[in-house]
Every structure is written in structure tokens, then in C-alpha cells.
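We treat protein structure as text, and this decision shapes the records that our systems exchange. The remainder of this section carries one protein's record, kept here as part of the documentation:
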Amino acid sequence: MDLNKVMLIGRLTKDPEMRTTPSGQQVASFSMATNRYFNDQAGARQEKVEFHNVTAWGKLAEICSQYLGKGRRAYIEGRLQTRDWVGQDGVKRYSTDIVAENLIMLDAPTGTGGGNGGTRPMNSQPTATRMDNQGEVVEEEHTLETIPF
């Protein structure tokens, strides 16, 4: 049995670009950034960013185009697909993209339409909202170190 499965949680680096194929099928393309934090040999905290090209088709493409935008956090589930072509210079080129099959929007809704209006800045930490003992709403920042598992 084979498996080709990708799961990403990251932020969009640009608004989705929506287009229609000659056969009439909708397709949306966008890129996502995922961050990885680690300590180097000297103990200093380092960050490594990876960029991923994502393609969504059909109804999922319409949803991505309508609700996602630059800076929005999303969970994308899909599969890897490698394309090849010959460039104008005659050199064969390759591109590995993620074909989205599932989407979960992780930011709170900010009205209709995509874009970054009202979302947190790209470098902010994820927060959880809870009530304290006096019934006040408290937002807590979470990092990998604060997750109990």
C-alpha cells in the first residue's frame, strides 16, 4: 500500500489567485509558509521557514479564494504532485506542489472576502481564549514549550 499525504499548518504568503481552465474548472493557487523553531548547538533559538505552493480545485478553490488571504492561518491537507516542463531556455524544470483536498481555516472569521483585514500579524503567536475565575476573558499565548504533550 502506498500513501501520499501532506498536512500543513501555516500562513498564506499571498492572496489566492483564482482562474478557470479552458474546460471550465475553477483552480486557486497560493503559497504558505511554515515555521520550525529549534535550538542550535550553541543553545540559541533558531527559526527555519519553508514555503509551499498549494493548488486547490473545484468548490474548494472557490472557498479558498473567497475566505483565505495573505497572513491568514490555515490547515491544508492534500497530496504532493510533481510537474515537469521544458523552459524557454530548453532546460527541463520540476515543481512539487501540494494539491489541497481539505481545508480548515484557523483564524477567527473577519467578515466576507479574503485579505488580511483584521487578522493577527504574521509574526504573532497563536492564542487561546478562556474565562478566568472572575468571568473575564483572558487570551493566552501558546508556544511549543507550553503544549503539555
